[in-house]
Amino acid sequence: MKASREYHMDKHDLAAASLTREPVAFKTIGSGLHKARRMGLHKVLPASARRAIASRFGARLNSISPGLISPRPLSPSLIAIANQALTGDVFERAQMLGFWFHSIPFPDGRITAGNKSMAQQQHELQCWQFPADLTGKTMIDIGCADGFYSIVGRARGAARVLSIDDQQTMGLQFLLENKVYPIEYRKLDVMSPEFADLEPFDFVHFAGVFYHLQNPVEAFKRVRRITREVALIEGHINETYGRELPYAVYYEGSELNNDPTNWWGPNLPCLEAMIRTAGFSRYQLTGIVDERAGNKRASFLAYP
Questions:
Q1: Which long-range contacts (CB under 8 A, 24 or more apart) does 135-138 make?
Q2: pTM metric for this prediction
Q3: What is the pLDDT of residue 293?
């Protein structure tokens, strides 16, 4: 059967697929850290926050469809799911934290001054084609940081959103302690045995994580296992040497953004090959954002 060929491609098939960008048996659709160090924040921030600062975040028919966020500066649907009983002093205390990775809207319309602006977050939602309607669906946000994308998932109708990260950020801790949003958080690493025991989720959000892992291929396999309908995959790529052949640059130390938690910089064909190797049957490249000196960010929607 054709399906069996999809899972038995040899290395020559994979190389040819990456060279032509038309994978065999697959169909493709379609210096914050330095500032933080000067301020001394790198000494007190959890690993997940340091990791996040270091990088700028910057189809098969499916019931979950890609979508665009409203072009308005702030979507009313986000505020609608916030705790409307909060008093104004809660936001004032939130500002006193000193660092937020995400810009988080509060019920009165004020927004935390995040390392990522609200405009940047909205641009990412648009570029990544974050699903417009998650009504009744389940979602997992892997590497949730302060939880902005988890909040968006709930605002777009998800029945359940599980937010996980290997460390709890100060921002997320504040949101949980003050019950600003209905966030379900678990301290959980994608490579942990506990992650392997998770049930599948309709929508998997896996942005800004894989290049921080020593074994990204295994991570992609784990993400594929828990993906019921679609996974949003986003992260760093290194195209210093072009796209003629799939390759990945290995960062032994702090070569990328002076951050020792960055390990890999695949080029686009290599990242596509990793997604196929993980078992996704097809995928859609939704965007590429240039950074500097061959460094870029790429986003995909991948389907089981």
A1: 135/159, 137/63, 137/64, 137/202, 137/203, 137/229, 138/162, 138/201, 138/202, 138/203, 138/228
A2: 0.78
A3: 76
User: Exposed/middle/buried for 230, CB within 10 Å: 0-12, 13-18, 19+?
Assistant: buried
Provide the pairing of β-strand 295-303 with 227-238.
antiparallel
Q: Give 280-299 as a 3 state SS string.
A: CCEEEEEEEEEEECCEEEEE
Helices 118-128, 148-155: inter-axial angle, 10-degree rounding: 60
Please answer whether residues 142 and 206 qualify as being in contact, where contact means their C-beta atoms are separated by less than 8 angstroms. Answer: yes
Domain that holds residue 146: 2-303
Q: Are strands 227-238 and 248-250 parallel, antiparallel or unpaired?
A: unpaired
Quick one: residue 67, left, alpha or beta (phi over 0 = left, psi -120 to 50 = alpha)?
beta
Q: Which two tokens stand for residue 148?
A: 């902005």
Question: Token match 């942990």: residue?
Answer: 192
* pLDDT (tens digit per residue) in 69-127: 444 455 677 888 999 998 879 999 999 998 999 999 998 889 999 999 999 999 999 99
Give how many domains the chain has, as a whole number: 1
